[in-house]
Amino acid sequence: MRCWKAVVRLGLISSALGTGHAAAQEGSPKAPPAAGAAPEVEVVPVQEVAPHDDAFATPPPGTAADQALWKAGREVDNAIPMQRGESARLQWRVKQGQFNERLELVEKQGPADRARRARQAGEKVIAARDRNYEIITRRWPIDPTRVCSYPLLDFASSLRVGSSPADRALQEESRKRLKDCVDKAQTILRSIEGSNNELRAALIALDAELPPGIPVTAPAGVPAPIVPAPPQAPVPAARPGEGK
Fold it and tell me: How confident is the model over 182-240, as pLDDT tens digits?
């Protein structure tokens, strides 16, 4: 029992995304935060392509294969920031889920079989959390923020120029660059999306074995949704002589 609690306190309470992906790009993958530390959680906003930019909003002229490549670049350009944001939310859930306190309550109240299932579910969360952390902080072969935006822009622009030999050479070069970026980005996307799904499922399984906790709020920097006030009936105008 004592060994499990040490694992939980080392893994669940102190988990987060750390200082983010930028620092990890400078060296080897970062280790998960040490126990007792208060690491920062990088909040990655969901990024959509700019609808006013023709290079992103509408397919460029060209063959069906070129337009399919453009579409693949556009999709992965949106999907990776979204999955990075989802990873941040899941890691925050691990950090703020009060799993130690809830586990101790189960161990005190029983039954023993439920406590055993909760410990096993917690171990799966720790393992999934560590895998997710390693993926999100490792050195990627693409820019983790811009993804394929620049190759996508270059490719779309090259298809809108002339058809001289120099133009065709430029198109072929930009086509190759975009395809290379998309191939790498799709590999990363599959990895992080699969890891997010694994961590989410592990958290759901652990929550099911523990008593309810306080709902987890969003990370700092993410504003709470604004709840609109219900409409109110207009106040009738006072009649002459009333209120005297």
Answer: 999 999 999 999 999 999 999 999 999 988 876 665 555 544 444 444 545 554 555 55
Residue with tokens 């490792």: 138
> Given its phi and psi angles, is residue 20 left (phi above 0), alpha (psi -120 to 50 degrees) or beta?
left
The closest of 127, 113, 118 to 100, measured between CA atoms, is 118
Query: What is the residue extent of each domain of the chain?
Result: 2-23+56-209
DSSP secondary-structure letter at 10? I
Q: Are 148 and 178 in contact (CB under 8 A)?
A: yes
How many CB atoms within 10 Å of residue 243? 6
Is the distance from CB of 92 to CB of 39 less than 8 angstroms? Answer: no
CA distance 148 to 144: 9
Q: Which residues contact residue 147 at a Cβ distance below 8 angstroms, ignoring those fewer than 6 apart? A: 76, 77, 80, 81, 181, 185
